[in-house]
Amino acid sequence: MIVVFSDLDGTLLDHDSYSFEAAKPALALLKNRKIPLVLASSKTEAEMRPIAEAMGLQGPMIVENGAGIADTSVNTPSEQGNHVHAALTKAVRQLPKHLQGCFEGFSDWDLTRVVAETGLSAEAAARAKTRRFSEPGRFSGTEAQKAEFVRLLDASGFSAVQGGRFFTLMPKTSKAARMAEVAASLAASSGESVRTVALGDGMNDLDMLQAADCGIIIANPSHAPLPVTKRERDGFILRSTEIGPVGWNQMIHSLVQAGDF
């Protein structure tokens, strides 16, 4: 059984327009072959539910950079995780003042600022502000300050990851850990072994790409390319030549043509 895990922004969604129009042929191909697609994004459950619905997807989703798992087959959004976000923001408030001032997150910004930072509509930006597990934002300090910030946050039980667009604070988990959890659940329910394919474009996707049986880096010129790892040199990670959903469509079709699906 093959299961595809995919990041959204800059991968399955265009970095600027958030459209997945160019990936529709590949999405239809997966659906026709009954290959599950699990979205794995830094977005919130509130943001991802309408996207999953528009794509015709139902089932588990990895939300807020792997900090939680949601299930679109359940109509009511989960209340899970509210306490996690509260503990995270408290940990930031307890950092030294000179470091606190270097970070601004979605909780600090009003709706107008979130719209400006993300390019989302006001309605979509409001969904982006419904954080349960994590806090994306901007770090304005020096690299030395960022290193100290990450070190002290780590000591408080949290981590920070740089995505394609934002610097995100979250619990010590990852998309890779959640991918393994979802894959194990699907294997148990289907009685089949699971082969994982993961697609992403940012540093926050790298662990997931490394852990997948096949990882695919989607080109995104808006940030530096992901580093070449041993797993890529050994042929387990591929790169698209096209960007965003065009590259996503390209790589899914390439796997099918190569007989990997």
The helix-and-strand class reads alpha/beta
CATH architecture of the largest domain, by name, is 3-Layer(aba) Sandwich
Shape: globular
How many structural units, i.e. domains? Answer: 2
- The total count of helices amounts to 11
Query: Might you state the CATH topology name of the largest domain?
Result: Rossmann fold
Instruction: Going across the biggest sheet, name each strand in turn.
Output: 2-1-9-10-11
Distance between the termini: 9 Å
Arithmetic mean of pLDDT: 92
Helix and strand run = EHEHEEHHEHHEHEEHEHEHEH
GO molecular function, one term: mannosyl-3-phosphoglycerate phosphatase activity
Pfam families: Hydrolase_3 (PF08282)
InterPro entries: HAD-like_sf (IPR036412), HAD-SF-IIB-MPGP (IPR006381), HAD-SF_hydro_IIB (IPR006379), HAD_sf (IPR023214)
Organism: Peteryoungia ipomoeae
